[in-house]
Amino acid sequence: MIYNAKYLCGAVKIRISGSMPERFINLCIIEQILLWGITKIDEDLIAWIRLDDFFRIRPLVIASHTKVKVLAQRGLPFVVKRAKRRKTLMVGVILFFALLYTLSSYIWFVEITGLKNVPDQGIRYVAEQYGLRPGSIKNGINSKAIEREIELQIPEVAWVGINFTGTRAVIEVVEKTMPKQEDKAPAHLVACKDGVISEIIVLAGQAAVKNGNTVKKGDLLIKGFALEPVQIGVEGQPLINTIQPELIRAQGIIKARVWYEGYAETELKQTTITRTGNQQMAVIMKLGSNEVAFNEIPEPSYEEFETEIIYKQWPLWRNRQLAVESTITIYREINSTHIEKSIEQARNEAYNKALQAVQSNIPETAQIVVHNYEVVKTPEENIVRVKVNVETIEDIGQTINISQ
Amino acid sequence: MLRRKGKLQSLAGFLEIPQDIVMDLPRITMLGNKQLLVENHKGIIEYTPSLVRIKLNQGELFIYGEKLTLGNLQAEQILVEGVVQKVNYDI
Known about the structure:
The structure holds two protein chains of two kinds.
Chain A: H1 2-9, E1 11-18, H2 21-30, E2 35-41, E3 44-50, H3 51-54, H4 58-63, E4 66-74, H5 76-85, H6 87-104, E5 109-113, H7 120-129, H8 143-153, E6 157-165, E7 168-175, E8 187-191, E9 195-204, E10 206-207, E11 214-215, E12 220-223, E13 251-267, E14 269-287, E15 290-293, E16 305-313, E17 324-340, H9 343-359, E18 367-376, E19 383-395, E20 397-401
Parallel strand pairs in A: 5-7
Antiparallel strand pairs in A: 1-3, 1-4, 2-3, 6-7, 8-12, 8-20, 9-11, 9-13, 10-12, 13-19, 14-15, 14-17, 16-17, 18-19
Chain B: H1 2-15, H2 19-23, E1 27-31, E2 35-39, E3 44-48, E4 51-55, E5 60-73, E6 77-90
Antiparallel strand pairs in B: 1-2, 2-6, 3-4, 4-5, 5-6
């Protein structure tokens, strides 16, 4: 703190020469003039004195019959004095701050965030119309008005917020969630899975299958034709259908029994390998044709271990291969354990695995009717194989647009 | 005079007042052999890099050493820096 005060006021290094320089110091002490860093060179004293005190010592110098010479100056007053001489530098400093201020009061970038479906050109266009564009002055922008205008002119937008971070204007947009537009294009309903139809509810169109029918994937379930008017035909005369049926979008629920099959196996005897976390590392650096080993391990001290070799090289640059390469070999200690399971345990495990495999294929809405499993007999004794059959009732309808 | 001083000293001891204030004595603080701070002095008599003589209320303080400099010189205190080898209190 005292140093800062000294720096602000300025300090002068003086050389006091004369027959009794100590007398000068005593006079300074009496006058409450602060001196510091006093050293003696030859017969002269060197001391630091504050700049404002320096102008008060003249009578003391005369009284003590000494001579005072200024050796060095330090502090803000001298910096200011020097700066005054260098006018161009000062002009540059002022110009720098003025430019910084003026340039930072303009908008340089306009950013739009939060858009998902609405294109940003529309928002950008509206914002530009009301003055928010790169190059406009920040203070002249009425962000509230622009927010309102964007909300009014772009109906898909629910809320708009404009804020400035430095020279960047960020338009934050929240979109409205619009109700889904219903597809009105004519379509058939086809099966997306193999199965046996168990329930048919037709909402629009004509059913093409009956209860109990077996369908394959891709088979037509509901035709996308409007119901034809009941034709009263005369016996014996063929019905002449001259009117092309009107195409509509088939709708309905077709439930079917679907079968899934899953399979999994487990070994009775299993060897698992776990890392213990202990590892040793050997680093070899290759410089041209010389090899430098930093941390050489001839043979790791572990009973069982796995080895990983990492080979590092500088990326190729203009097809020139650098001569520096390094090879890191990591030896990791491992523990291997043999686990023997009972047949039931293995079977349960395999069953769970198989069930999991099946369940990933079953949609969530499906209703599971039956599920059973069987153990597949194999000559191999070490492996238990399990097959799982699941029967579900689910909606297998899939709309496919009719190409016209 | 001496008796009065003795009384003052015992009174100061009884009241737990620092004696340097009551008795107007110099307080000399040494930081290893690097720094020596003299408070309540009466001025400097002689200064060379190997010897500093400081005038006290009664007598004189001789500081012998090497490369001695006066760090901070004020009306209340003198800070002697450098390598202090010997301090001699001379009444």
